[in-house]
Amino acid sequence: MAKPTLLLIDGNSLAFRSFYALINQVDRFVSHEGLHTNALVGFNNLLDGIVDPFKPDKALVAWDAGKTTFRTNSFGDYKGNRDKTPQELVEQFEPMKKMVELHGIKNYQLVDYEADDIIGTIAAAGDAAGYAVTIVTGDRDMRQLVTDNITVWLTKKGITEIDKYMPAQVAEVYGGLTPAQVVEVKGLQGDPSDNYPGVPGIGEKTAIKLIQEYHSIPTLYEHVDEMKASKRKENLITYRDDAFLSRELARIRTDAPLEINLDDLDYQGIHYQALIPFYQQLDFKQQLVKLANMGYVAADAKPVTQQPLKWVTLDFENEAELNRIEDVLDVYVELDGENYHRANIVGFVVGNAQVGYFASRNVDYLTQDSPVRKLLQNSVLKKRVFNAKALTVALARYGVQLTGVTFDLLLVSYLLNVNDNSNDLGQVAHEHQYFDVATDEEVYGKGAKFQIPADDQVFFEHLGRKAQTIGQLEPALMQQLTDQQQARLYTEIELPLTFVLADMEMQGITVNADHLLAMQSKFSERLSELQQKIYQQAGHEFNIQSTKQLGTVLFEEMGLKSLKKTKTGYSTSVEVLEQMTDVPIVESILQYRQLSKIQSTYVDGLLRVIHGSDSKVHTRYLQTLTQTGRLSSVDPNLQNIPVRVEEGRQIRSAFVPSHEGWSIFSADYSQIELRVLAHVTGDMEMQKAFLADEDIHASTARRIFGIPLADPISPNLRRQAKAVNFGIVYGISDFGLAKNIGTDRKTAKQIIETYLTEYSGVKAWTQKIIETAREQGYVETIAHRRRYLKDIKAKNFNLRSFAERTAMNTPIQGSAADIIKIAMIKMQTALKTHGLNSKMLLQVHDELIFEVPAEELATMHQLVPEIMDSAVQLDVPLKVETHEGKTWYDAK
DNA sequence: CCCGTCACG
DNA sequence: ACGTACGTGACGGGA
């Protein structure tokens, strides 16, 4: 008969592991009550993944009781170099213990003892009582407890993967030693993380070798005199006491005076119903979904019944049934990659709840005349989709002109809350408390395991669920849009824009590959010259692109003074290097850096993404990503093509019109963010300056530096005033301004105060917007785009300050984004109504780029500014400047 | 996969 | 006393 099982869990060790596994995202895991939950998430995964399937007979989670233990009493420095446990973790301990209880497991801690000792003691008792004992921990030293009946499960890097240690595995990593000998090794080796010393110069390798030979520390010292003279022998003798002390510190106790025994440890099983309010409090949505799928729902929840799903595999027998579809069609198309300009359609589904859903992998239904194709191209039939832009572009490649989209789940979800921007339909649905659909990861797997199911039953059911979800969510989400006064933002801006963007992306922009190739060979020659020069200046070869190696060369070998550090080493950023240009190698490195950036990101990078079929690049604009409402551009990013430095700027000469004799034409808003600032703040002084079409930075300089009208403004003061204007838009701080204009903090502070006195409307507005953010929890743009600021009331100064700057910046940056989006929609319409052949190709936040036939140039110079500056009516005028040229470079 | 760096508005 | 300008994406290096 199988032995009874006893599961012992090292609470502290695993809490720390969980916390640091997600340390980078500590601020992304915060409950609505402001509690950090990253460690709780990790710990919960651990319970789910290891404990729950284990179903032990008895179980315990052991915790440290506090800072002092018998170890600190015997050795004051024990764990003396540990940083204080971060507050973000401390606050998670109590809920974590509650989580343990709700999973049916007892917690235990004991004054003066560490979790290890509790586990050691119970494990020994369990071993003696005939249990199969399993210990789960992140602490490698626990392996000393292993016996034939005690297995140690050690978490690897993350926390969900584990290595299992039985005596054989311990022997394997410890060169044939027994678990009991682990403390002998540790005694010699010491442990920097616990701050006990061991013997200097002896690491794990040597310690194992010595214990292999002498078996233990006491016997080693019996024979120490026989060792041949060496530094090691000297150290062993000198640090004898440390070795014995460290050995004791490393030894886990098996005789702690516990007040509990095995009878108290019966595993209770999971208290499902009680977990619901607990998970709700922590905002553990995924866990709630899992509970719901098991039939556990909150007492006050609407009953979750899995909706029935009507679906069939589309075939030539049943395709006629599609003709019964009227009013509305839900559509979902699955691609085999995220870049929809290249990816293939691997499956699709159309239908609605009344008639049912029709799924297929056969793209002939799309490429050839079929009922499906007719429905998709029928403009009267309302389509409900997820990611209309991707769908439009993908279908267009199969010859289908999708029309009549009224509901885009992804887009609507993003507008309701910019954080709900997952490209996974299931995840988005779960955000809206709709659980009748799984995520792609759940169905397809991820990483190397990703696979579209070969089984039609599985694949089509998932597709059907997705399509059905879109339809099910539409009424509630459209209502929420209305409630948040965002209906017009959706119907008049974002939804029409999505099709404008689809057009621009499909149009693409032609890139002259020969030109890039010429640049490539010129640059690589120059790069190897610079490389040789740098090797010479350094005295040896090294990887210039490695910040680590570069730091060693500059700050250790060459003895330059390090001016700034990053958390991983010396900073070698431009900012730092520019202060050391008197050293020749630094100058060379700066040149090398600049050139290799252009080469790798722009020359090589662009060449890689030119489509063979049309010699164009087709970016994808992400419409549902940024926190402010701007677009972003990927694959390639065409919103950060160099312009400020001449060498880089020449990249732009590779961007050319797609027809002989055409031109590249650009139109940009002048100072749009400051104009928006003048509008939203209602500041009369700033508005006057714009109404008079003054040079705004000069005008600001005049006011904040008190320069009489008769006097000219020096370029330096104008530059400073410009920095102040930028600072205001970004949510200014004296430190930031000082750094930017190279003055001291006090002066910067004075400048800001003067600015806010001179522009009192701006001052009043910044105070008001922060107040508003605190009251409603969000800020808005002129088109009612919304951004929630969860940290606006944070106790932590940094988090709160950041939220306050965001509160000021988002209405400005976001409203500017609203304006150009409106202009783009109007522009596309105007091109059509004027019967122009010019094409809008790119958007770069405050500028639009077109390709234009020669005969339309004059018209465009007039029409484009007209459309752009009348996109919205502000209290100050909008100003637009236009340029044209044979290439993008020349359109300046 | 994260970090430092650097390109843009 | 805190540490600090807003919003993005791509690259190479190195765990």
Automatic annotation (TrEMBL):
The protein, known as: DNA polymerase I
The protein's Enzyme Commission number: 2.7.7.7
Reaction(s) this enzyme catalyzes, per UniProt: DNA(n) + a 2'-deoxyribonucleoside 5'-triphosphate = DNA(n+1) + diphosphate
Highest taxon in the source lineage: Bacteria
Leader sequence residues: none
Gene from which this protein is expressed: polA
Family: Belongs to the DNA polymerase type-A family.
Keyword field: DNA damage, DNA repair, DNA replication, DNA-binding, DNA-directed DNA polymerase, Exonuclease, Hydrolase, Nuclease, Nucleotidyltransferase, Transferase
GO biological process: DNA-templated DNA replication; double-strand break repair
Record has Oxidoreductase as a keyword: no
Subunit relationships: Single-chain monomer with multiple functions.
PANTHER family cross-referenced by the UniProt entry: DNA POLYMERASE I, DNA POLYMERASE NU
Species of provenance: Weissella kandleri
Record-annotated 3'-5' exonuclease domain positions: 312-482
Record domain 5'-3' exonuclease: where: 2-268
Annotated DNA-directed DNA polymerase family A palm domain residues: 648-856
Pfam families: 5_3_exonuc (PF01367), 5_3_exonuc_N (PF02739), DNA_pol_A (PF00476), DNA_polI_exo1 (PF22619)
A single GO molecular function term of this UniProt record: DNA binding
